[in-house]
Amino acid sequence: MTREELTEPDAGSAVSSGAVHRPALRALLAAVLRVLAPIALALIVGGLALELLGKDPLAYYGFVLERGLLRFGGLEETVTRMAPLLLIASGLIVAFRAGLWNLGSDGQFLLAAVTAAALAPALSGALPRALVLLIALLAGALVGALWSLLPALLKARFGLNEIITTLMMSFLGVSLSNVLIKLVLRDPSTTVPQTQSLPVEERLPRLFHTTVHSGLLIALVAVIGVHFVMTRTAFGLRLQVLGANRDAAVHAGLEVGRLIVAAFTVSAALIGLGGAVEVLGVWGTVRADWNPAYGSLVVPLVFLARLNGYAVIALTLFFSALMTGGESAARRVGVPQHYVLVLVALVLLFLALIEYLDRRRPARAQTVMGSLA
Amino acid sequence: MGADLHPAAAQPAVASVRQVSKRFPGVLALERVSLELYAGETHILLGENGAGKSTLVSLLAGMQQPDEGEIWLRGQAARLTSPRRARDLGIGVVYQQLLLVPSLTVLENLMLGGPWWRPLRRAAALERLERLSGLLGTQLDPQARVGALSLGEQQHVEIIRALWREETLLLLDEPTSMLTPQGVADLRRMLDGLKARGTALVLITHKLPEAFAFGDRISVLRQGRLAGGIEPARLAAMSDEERTNTVLELMFGGEVGASGGERARVIAERERVAGHALHQTRKRAADARPLLSVKGVSTSGNRGEMTLKAVTLELGAGEVLGIAGVDGNGQKHLAEVIAGQRPARAGQIEVAGVDVTRGRVPQRRRAGVRYVTDERLGEGTVGPLSVATNLVLKEIGAAPLWRHGITDWGRVHAQAREQIATHDIRTPSERTPVARLSGGNIQKVLLARELDAAARVVVLNKPTYGLDLKNQQLALERIVSAAARGLALIVISTELEELLEVSDRIAVLYQGRLAGIVDNGAEAERRIGLLMTGAAAA
């Protein structure tokens, strides 16, 4: 986890003088550049690879851009995809800021999705739609949180490495979801094992006569809410202290164990909410063996955004567009759909590279400060 | 400046720094500095913080390269392009901050740095460790985890590591700052041994008596330039007072205005009389009721940590209790158990007659207990967070800076600006990450945070460690003025001189027990010395 990405409000405060303002602006510019440069480099190198394969990179990128963002239908799909990604991202921001590696998002996400998929059709009819959806969403969040409780307690009580425990719990969660679908929740009227489907008119309401469902609003509120909590509240600051220097947290008298559990449950609840939103907004059901494995996409994305909520929104839009456009391009330009993952991988590679080069510079600057002290 | 101060000596220099300059953005850290380092000679580098001493060391250590000038080793121009290269050329360094891997054992730390293909040879390393620790007069458990050792013991490991390959030039950046008087004596014996074997030594220190005791030759840096020096023959011929005056003249003499001279005078005063003054200048509070009472407190800890065993002490308002003792005799546990950071296994702690034994840090803080830790960056501050945030680190969530859990950053920053002004914290802004500040200024941040208006009982662990003379003096003055305000203070230090300067009474910790408490006065030093060695413990 990098250190300099801790956020405290700097620019925009009424007291900041002109002298302070200019470096703040430059820092902002540098931050934007650090995000854009890896993307640009990835697109160039990815394009060269396409060229070598005998495909026209410009045509491919043009197609991705057109289908992913410029066409209304494509834009709708892109924006719809953002909802679960944003919720997972907001959950990960909470954990990562607290210095906790919640890598169990897939299990938390899927179990929550199954919970929502089981509850909503069962309750619909008996209760009003709004109440059904609310219960299903909350149940999803709750199940996600519960699934993180064991790693959280083990970490808080015994200092057990949460990377391992959350990953293990994730495998268990994914398997348990499948077991539940195949053995308990299976809809007998379908051939493929899946949960009973929630009718389209019972799902999350659409926004303004588009195909985009209101889960996007929940996701945006979550991301911005998390950003606010992290930068403007005592709870967020405590988590940052914990994440940046655990010894200092102990020294300052923070209740480290409770903070760990709180960060984990909030993180997993948001991720679970993402699973519930995806089911209640898009699919209406969960099929056996369905696992979008968003975690592996969102974890690096969150770091690319340097744990900043607004940057996460922009990057999620970018990645969603890439995925939507990439799927269309697969059919038309003949580049496999998974080529998008190659681009994502390249972005991460260049991100790491630029991070490394960038780190070397301040490291030298720091020894400078040290030797002057 | 920059002319070679040392006339051609009989023997050639082991290393010479020739007209070296080093620039950093906005600062000229070194400007055409020339030095000659001779075999079998201890060369003392003196200067205020920021004078360029550490930069010079980092050039010799291969951490940085000079912008201009050359470094010659054994008659050849050498390019010290990396720390590894410097080591290969026989330059060993003991840095001021510890550079050990805390999760590895002593032996493993020492075996680091060999070529990757060579298998680790434990037996040989063990033997070498034993020989070197014999030379140093220290006893280290080779299998102890370094993180579990006290700071002083960790420094022993550092020194041993710097000598690991029979280095012919040894640089020591304030090596004594964590050592006990006994440790300093041991170090001196060891350095004398090394000198006799022809090692060239460079030693940075802030303590003038130590400089005179250790040094054969003194060079003084001021604002990146060589202000001058004292050659061996001259140094030997001078009395300590003449030496002090000469050095202070070189360190501060050229400064314009009265402040430089005044500062030099204050420091000279302190050096000469070695204290006894500060604590006597204030009145003792008449209140007989103890503000802090520790009754039979014991602690438990991990392997390698010295725990407390039935420690009992009382402290009244306006009183300064010094805690002396060789490092690693339970000082850290004492500080932590009073601060509430470590639970007491047995015993009772009362603040103003109220039992706070079960309360943790927040409850203790509400009772007025404060703790200035010696691990300023380790646990005292959060490096990447701003100075302002670090100033309120222990008050997160409390009114009026937080309302309903929401941070009023405007107020946090405004309060920080006030504190920065009153406590003379040198920082570009209250938003600067605290890790960018110098050690002295980080200590000012801690003192500002802990010596607030609501403080009643303050524990200070090594409050002057790693600071230069000016900041040491400042920290001690803050302690005395806090006592004058009616606070009860516990000052833990391995610098006896410093304790004699500020304390009313001095307690000695030996093997986790309170060996005794001595009233500060004429005989104090000798009696404390006896207690520290455990002679009077029984």
Describe this structure in words.
The complex is a heterodimer of chains A (373) and B (538). Chain A has a domain at 83-297. Chain A has 13 helices and no strands. Chain A has helices spanning 18-52, 57-70, 72-97, 105-123, 129-158, 162-184, 215-232, 234-244, 246-251, 256-283, 295-304, 309-332, 339-372. In chain A, helix 3 crosses helix 11 (295-304). The longest helix of chain B has 16 residues, at 181-196. The model of chain B is unreliable at 1-9, 254-264 and 271-283 (pLDDT under 50). Chain B has 3 domains: 15-237, Rossmann fold; 238-273, no CATH class; 278-368 and 454-532, 3-Layer(aba) Sandwich (Rossmann fold), CATH 3.40.50.300.
Characterize the main sheet of chain B. 6 strands, mixed
Low-confidence stretches of chain B: 1-9, 254-264, 271-283
Into which percent range does the helicity of residues of chain B fall? 25-40%
The SS-based structural class of chain B is alpha/beta
Structural class of chain A: mainly alpha
How would a crystallographer describe the biggest sheet of chain A? none
CATH topology of the largest domain in chain B: Rossmann fold
Number of domains of chain B: 3
Q: What integer is the average pLDDT of chain B?
A: 82
Quote the average pLDDT of chain A: 85
Low-confidence stretches of chain A: 1-7, 9-20, 362-373
Largest interface: A-B, 36 and 53 residues
Distinctive features:
heterodimer; A: globular; disordered N terminus; B: 538 residues; alpha/beta; Rossmann fold; six-stranded mixed sheet; 22 strands
Summarize the helices and strands and which ones pair or pack.
The complex is a heterodimer of chains A (373) and B (538).
Chain A: H1 18-52, H2 57-70, H3 72-97, H4 105-123, H5 129-158, H6 162-184, H7 215-232, H8 234-244, H9 246-251, H10 256-283, H11 295-304, H12 309-332, H13 339-372
Chain B: E1 15-24, E2 27-37, E3 42-46, H1 53-60, E4 68-73, E5 76-78, H2 83-88, E6 91-94, H3 106-111, H4 122-136, H5 151-162, E7 169-173, H6 181-196, E8 200-204, H7 208-214, E9 217-222, E10 225-230, H8 232-237, H9 240-252, H10 258-273, E11 290-298, E12 311-316, E13 320-324, H11 331-339, E14 346-351, E15 354-355, H12 361-366, E16 369-372, H13 376-380, H14 387-391, E17 402-403, E18 406-407, H15 409-422, H16 439-450, E19 457-461, H17 469-484, E20 488-492, H18 496-502, E21 505-510, E22 513-519, H19 524-532
